Amino acid sequence: MILRFTRTLSVAGLIACAAASLAAQNSIEQYQNQFNHESNPVRRAKIMPKLGRAEFDAMRRQLAAGDYDGAVKTVKELESQASDVETGLENTGIDAEKSPSGFKEFQISVRSSIDRLNDVLAGMTADEQAPFAHARNELEKIDRALIERLFPRQPKAESEHGKVKPQ
Predict the structure, then answer these.
(1) 45-65: per-residue pLDDT in tens?
(2) Is residue 84 within 8 Å of residue 143, measured between CB atoms?
(3) Which residue, among 78, 53, 145, has the nearest Cα to 61 in the 3D structure?
(4) Taking the model in full, what pTM does it have?
(5) How far apart are CA 147 and CA 42, in angstroms?
(6) Which residues are within 8 A (CB) of 21 and not within 5 positions of it... i.e. 6 or more apart?
(7) Cα–Cα distance for residue pair 121/115, rounded to 1 Å
(8) Tens digit of pLDDT for each residue in 84-135?
(9) What residues contact 75, with CB distance under 8 A and at least 6 apart?
(10) DSSP per residue over 44-58, as a string?
């Protein structure tokens, strides 16, 4: 009786895992479809938090399954999408300080992606880190550019002598 119950739980667990994996794959495809078919850069920027989260979940599953090449492909896609959105937002000419919609969601998404990449990098060997570190560096550049657009009137950094540091 106990053996039968244990088998039933094991089968139910496997089914639940398979269903969760399928649902995650469907969400990536759904968000990717939305992203690809959206022409408005601000709306594309608003899709990025969900798409980025789904892609990181997929990347973690790929790494856990030993699919390093698949994870590299996923992180490169994420980097490319972020670059496309940043370029699109820049080309709109919108003043992000006055109309931050889309910009702030995208900046938060980029910052979260950098944090997630740092977590992923912590568990890798130096040889495995290269493509992920490159993506992190590119995302950091995008993050700095977004911060400058959202907050263009930041005070200049001062040195210990009270003079403005040259930039």
Answers:
(1) 999 999 999 999 999 999 999
(2) no
(3) 53
(4) 0.77
(5) 16
(6) 61
(7) 10
(8) 999 999 999 999 999 999 999 999 999 999 999 999 999 999 999 999 999 9
(9) 59, 117, 131, 132, 135
(10) HHHHHHHHHHHHHHH
